[in-house]
Amino acid sequence: MLKRNWPELANYLQVTDHKGNTLWQQVEQIYLEHGQTVRPLAKDLFNAFSIPLTQVKVVIVGQDPYASDHAHGLAFSSAMDRDIPKSLQNIFLALKNDFGEEYQPHVKGKANLQPWVEQGVLLLNTRLTVEIGCPLNPLHDIWQEFINLAFNLLAQKSHLVYLLWGKHAQSFASHVNAQLNLILKAPHPSPLSAYRGFFTCGCFKQTNQYLLEIGQSTILW
């Protein structure tokens, strides 16, 4: 999937570092030594890239995967229908603010955002792995250059919408040409910060308005 949809990223996995190790070897080692506690599961690691680069219309930038079985490779999305993460609940509340109290999110089950991906939304965490019980484990800092390359590839496109929620996501604004794309910033949907303006940011409605203006189909959120 990665090789077909994002060949440059697939090739980067095989580039050796100063120690002679490839990124893929480091990833394999993490799963070999910590597989019981690493999330997402290895089979879901590159789910965000199931959408080809050529089809991306919107980029939502997350940070770490959920340090639980909710993680399945898509930022903010959950593989489970119970105990929906608070950040995702807040995203659903923001959708109701944008489209009306009766609005029902277009998801698979109750919390899987795969239908968004299928419409052109890249749900990109900036670290692709995390460890249950030890979310700040530096082992998972290996993704920085891989993610930078992903942003460089996205920069070859124009008229994308970037949803940057929170300071961490907004630090990636420097990768984006604001004259050729739309950048929408808002507080992070976490319960710790959503009250600062996330619910009323209007990001989803603004995204669809922009897509209409440039002749693209809108997202059924």
Structure description:
With 221 residues, the chain is of the alpha/beta class. It has one domain (2-213): 3-Layer(aba) Sandwich (Uracil-DNA Glycosylase, subunit E), CATH 3.40.470.10. The chain contains 8 helices and 6 strands, in the order H-H-H-E-E-H-H-E-E-H-E-H-E-H. The protein has helices at 2-5, 7-12, 23-34, 86-99, 114-117, 144-154, 166-170, 203-213, and strands at residues 38-39, 58-62, 121-125, 130-131, 161-165, 182-186. Strands 3-2-5-6 form a 4-stranded parallel beta sheet. A two-stranded antiparallel sheet has the order 1-4. Helix 7 (166-170) links the parallel strand 5 and strand 6 (182-186). The model has no long low-confidence stretch (mean pLDDT 95). The active site is at residue 64. Keywords: DNA damage, DNA repair, Hydrolase. Excises uracil residues from the DNA which can arise as a result of misincorporation of dUMP residues by DNA polymerase or due to deamination of cytosine. Belongs to the uracil-DNA glycosylase (UDG) superfamily. UNG family.
Summarize this structure briefly:
Helix content is 30%, strand content 11%.
List keywords for this structure.
221 residues, alpha/beta, Uracil-DNA Glycosylase, subunit E, two-stranded antiparallel sheet, globular, DNA damage, EC 3.2.2.27, Uracil-DNA glycosylase, UDG_fam1
